[in-house]
Amino acid sequence: MTETFADINGIKLCYEEIGEGDPVLLVHGFGGNKEGWIGQWIPLSEHFRVIRFDNRNGGRSDRPNQPNTPEMLADDVSGLMDHLKLEKTHVIGWSLGGIIVQNFAKKYPDRINKLVLINTVMGAPDNQGVEIIKNNHLKELEDRKKDPVKTFWKNARLGYHIKFRKEMEANSKKKFYGLWSVEDLIQIQNLNPPTHQDIINQSHALLQTITIKDLKQFKIPTLLIASSHDRLTSSKSMIEMHQAIPNSILKIIDKAGHNSPRSRASEVNEAIINFLKN
To answer: 171-174, long-range: CB within 8 Å, 24+ apart, which pairs?
Structure first.
């Protein structure tokens, strides 16, 4: 398992892969990095060939100073597949990653075997919504520089259900599910962090380009995983998406927030593995 760089669409994307079997591509969210898949990386690799990568303007990938668009990021996914000589793959997107892979599914439907969307939406409906999200992330960046631990716990109120958050607070060294600790998550959020300009460039990818009409055209078997207490991407939005996508399955994780792939890793992973294998 070694980080590798692929020349794609005029930039270098950093990726790594682990495991054997059918390929599974993981697409991370806004302001994140490939290491954010810490809850899925090892468990999924026991069944599949798993590939994770840093989106442009994130992690160790190149950071060109230009607005990202969902179509551009979808092209990056396709380019990485070309580099890896993959004709088709399973694709999993979380949060902004879910917006990216919806656009990928729209533009490259024949390159996907099965699609998994986790705690996501079709995109922000207007510039005002994007501005709010962007400014919140910019504020978070500044707060992290001053006190990364305090900032983590502040954001945990948004990302984790209160019951699980209390478990995290009780023991920051505990390896939940044998996969991650709070200390690991704090380290990940400060690993090759985005710059102020990266956040601005990434924020353009949040603007809505997928419609209900588009989702009704999807012919790809799709699993949607929502969380009952997600304060960032509501389960209501994912219910509407499920109703629009033919041949889709909806699973709502109870008493979980936006970061359910970590806080409820076993349940999320079981749902993904069963869906992709059956």
So the answer is: none
Q: Give the separation between CA 244 and CA 216, rounded to whole angstroms.
A: 5
Whether 225 and 251 have beta carbons less than 8 Å apart is answered as: yes
What are phi and psi for residue 80, nearest 5 degrees?
-65, -40
Q: Which residues of 207-235 are buried (b: 16+ CB within 10 A; e: fewer)?
A: bebbeeebbeebebbbbbbbbebbebbbb
**The pair of three-digit structure tokens given for residue 227, joined into one six-digit string:** 């969380």
pTM assigned to the model: 0.97
Query: Which CATH number, 3.40.50.1820, 2.40.110.10, 3.40.50.800, 3.30.70.100, labels domain 4-277?
Result: 3.40.50.1820
In the chain, where the domains are located: 4-277
* Contact yes or no for 70/103 (Cβ under 8 A): yes
Q: What pLDDT, on the 0 to 100 scale, is given for residue 32?
A: 96
